[in-house]
Design a protein that fits this description.
10 helices; four-stranded mixed sheet; homodimer; globular; alpha+beta; 199 residues
Chain lengths: 199, 199
């Protein structure tokens, strides 16, 4: 029988995607489930609703709660959390293009976790080429080839297609998981998604 | 030492408040925590943001997901779920006034659970006096006295004050819990709120 699969849709600027990205490989391995990492962007989905910023910035009350909640979650999971003072949300376009260019590469999970750490623990600018190049180099991935592959018209179009698939499948936030067609939204549904896939 | 307390802020029209209401007494008792039941209304809080309907109706994509998610939660917890065909959201004003009039009464938790069952399992109209009278009568609470107490100008004003407190304390959804001043939003944070209070 084929190994069950969970799709993990994640956005590099999304706070709740961060603990999900740090937890999913270990939990999925324990459950015997394969993770399909699917980077995408929430911006176009929010923009389609007329939102031009994170809902956590648009609604400061909800935003203040989110920071408290994500702080508790990271503390509980022993995940470092130290935000860049310059921006929430960060521009995740370049990182998403690199991740998508590497969607079948062995380094995708580790690259993705490193981008999350850069954003949410190391106070780095993930839209800065130097930051992304450094992450790739530390993973022994050739930065020049990879950055070039990320920036081809084909790969840019592929990210648009990925975002369109997200919208078509009614993804409205991140992280988002699918076990088959069963949808699960949020870091706190990760265990449920894995359990569903294992059924 | 005084028994730790969790405040449980709930709205009778709120889907996620339903499993929280059905679960909290048992979980709190197991944890040795006292629950303070605090009925309130989300309508005025949404209205202050310019929303005149549930966010789950305003955004049908999010709404469809919510119904699937709440269905899974209720199935997992063995909580019946059968929606009234006539309305989501129901008008919860009368039920909230009765609950508030009974805020220190022994029957408040059982009354509240019965209203949730009427709304989310028995397809009843919780804005119908007959439905509320029937619930009270089955709890051996005198309906005439209680309905009268619910409808005094003082009690109506008290519900407004309760809603103002909710807004001042930055409650933006339901269910909402406080362990001291630590805020927790959502049925899926109930266990965390209890654990925080027990610390």
């Amino acid at each position: 029988m084929a190994q069950p699969v969970v799709e993990f849709w994640y956005e590099f600027a999304s706070t709740y995607s961060y603990p999900a990205a740090m937890r999913i490989s270990r939990l999925a391995e324990d459950a015997g489930i394969e993770v399909r990492w699917r980077p995408f962007m929430l911006g176009p989905i929010f923009a389609a609703k007329g939102l031009n910023d994170s809902p956590f910035n648009v609604d400061p009350v909800k935003g203040r709660y989110m920071w408290r909640d994500i702080g508790r979650i990271c503390a509980k999971e022993d995940i470092p959390l130290k935000l860049p003072p310059f921006s929430f949300v960060q521009n995740s376009l370049k990182a998403a293009r690199i991740a998508l260019a590497g969607e079948t590469a062995h380094w995708l999970p580790e690259f993705s976790r490193a981008v999350y750490r850069a954003n949410f623990a190391e106070q780095k600018d993930i839209s800065d080429d130097a930051v992304l190049v450094d992450i790739l180099a530390r993973l022994d991935v050739d930065p020049a080839t990879t950055m070039a592959a990320a920036n081809t018209p084909e790969n840019k179009a592929k990210l648009k297609t990925q975002n369109e698939e997200a919208m078509r499948r009614e993804i409205f936030g991140a992280p988002f998981f699918f076990a088959g067609n069963e949808p699960f939204w949020g870091n706190d549904r990760l265990e449920d998604a894995l359990a569903w896939a294992a059924k």
